[in-house]
Design goal:
alpha+beta, single chain
């Protein structure tokens, strides 16, 4: 197995989990943002493009690895009755992005733990590579 491929796989894991953290934080931040008239409520979402890890592990080019992207998807809105708010509609409702806080907090925790696991994986791989070089240099 190619060491460069293993580093690339771990790098993808780090990138993907970082984007998951950013998406969850963005969604939590938007939970109290008012949606203006005619605006579509949007939530951040991470998507990964297809790649070929098998080719990468077998010695293919590092460009064969999938990539992750942060994008936006349409979401539902929630209405709060607040006629005193200047952003209220004709019915006195103010519209916010409907964010499920339990889901977003769960995403934060799992992405954080997965990021830490990828960091440990990279550190272990680096230690193993250094040890192999020491053994080979004797």
């Amino acid at each position: 197995m190619n060491v460069e491929a293993l580093f690339s796989i771990n790098q993808f894991g780090l990138d993907y989990e970082r984007l998951r953290l950013e998406a969850a934080l963005s969604n939590i931040a938007q939970s109290n943002a008012v949606i203006g008239k005619g605006q579509t409520p949007m939530l951040a979402q991470v998507t990964a493009t297809n790649g070929d890890f098998q080719a990468l592990v077998a010695g293919g080019s590092p460009g064969a690895a999938p990539a992750a992207h942060l994008g936006q998807v349409a979401a539902k809105s929630r209405a709060v009755h607040d006629p005193a708010n200047p952003m209220a509609d004709a019915n006195g409702d103010v519209h916010y992005v409907d964010v499920d806080m339990a889901t977003e907090m769960t995403n934060l925790m799992s992405a954080s733990r997965a990021y830490e696991a990828n960091v440990r994986g990279i550190n272990t791989l680096q230690e193993m590579t250094e040890k192999a070089l020491q053994i080979g240099g004797r």
